[in-house]
Fold this sequence. Notes:
Blueprint: E1 2-11, E2 20-23, E3 28-31, H1 35-62, H2 66-87, H3 98-112, E4 125-130, E5 133-140, E6 145-146, E7 152-154, E8 159-161, E9 166-168, E10 173-175, H4 180-212, H5 214-220, H6 222-251, H7 255-260, H8 278-287, E11 300-309, H9 322-336, H10 349-359, H11 363-366, H12 379-392
Helix pairs in contact: 1-2, 1-4, 1-6, 2-4, 4-5, 4-6, 9-10
Amino acid sequence: xxxxxxxxxxxxxxxxxxxxxxxxxxxxxxxxxxxxxxxxxxxxxxxxxxxxxxxxxxxxxxxxxxxxxxxxxxxxxxxxxxxxxxxxxxxxxxxxxxxxxxxxxxxxxxxxxxxxxxxxxxxxxxxxxxxxxxxxxxxxxxxxxxxxxxxxxxxxxxxxxxxxxxxxxxxxxxxxxxxxxxxxxxxxxxxxxxxxxxxxxxxxxxxxxxxxxxxxxxxxxxxxxxxxxxxxxxxxxxxxxxxxxxxxxxxxxxxxxxxxxxxxxxxxxxxxxxxxxxxxxxxxxxxxxxxxxxxxxxxxxxxxxxxxxxxxxxxxxxxxxxxxxxxxxxxxxxxxxxxxxxxxxxxxxxxxxxxxxxxxxxxxxxxxxxxxxxxxxxxxxxxxxxxxxxxxx
Length: 393
């Protein structure tokens, strides 16, 4: 048995570390925990479907046909922002290669020196200056890198994310540098859609109650009652989340920085990323350039996989010896064959192959001759044979 290394090309997303899932040949990147994301899709699609089925036909006739049209446009925009946030790379930073990690470890050991036994080693940090403010870069023991400013390690996805805001289970992905604007537009448009549906649900109930009465209207439109309940409980959380992120954008601050109190703690360090202007901060976050992904998910890489090969002899038999001899000669020829295609076999190697072939017994020599037995004859036949012999003599 021998092993042969076969090299095949695979996509880099198949070998990326972390706890992400990829679809569509690496184009779609999400977290593994996607149950809440499916719940978000169900609530949005279900509520809008009920609105288009029950309220829109009545409102388009009695008020304006523009009501369902605007609701459809708003619904499509919400779904586009949701899928754009959920399926994109939030800004995951690649981990250090083994050589890079070894070099960084050597630099840290050289800078810290020998730590006496029983003492805790100093924290692995680096200081950089941004807008006349000292910002500390922390070392990630998982990714083996010094994280860039505003980056943090997500424990759910097990990756460092640039300008990490938070991990949102409702969208099934982290929110970071590359998809934060789409997340904000999703929450903003979802707030408008929720207010829009909730308002026209109330208008629909009031208009039908004038003719049929309030209780009869509720009995005739059970879908409207369900929509009002869903929108009422969703409205406060979605509108509150949108207002909170509007406040963070005006200060050019992330949720992670706000929770940790990075710029409002005891040290009274000012935010080095703020322009001290609400409009400039909003323009930078919402209208800034789109940063490319640094993962190269769909790039190609070579992978060596061992494949075991076996050389088995055919089954032996006492009456058939020729296949064994032929198999032995073939195996000997394979072992003495040149490794280079254009290389000739040396002359001194050829007689050994022939000699080995001559020494091996042939099928005729190995099988002893089978004695021929005389045919069995009757007594009458033997008597006739003996009379014939006497006549000839």
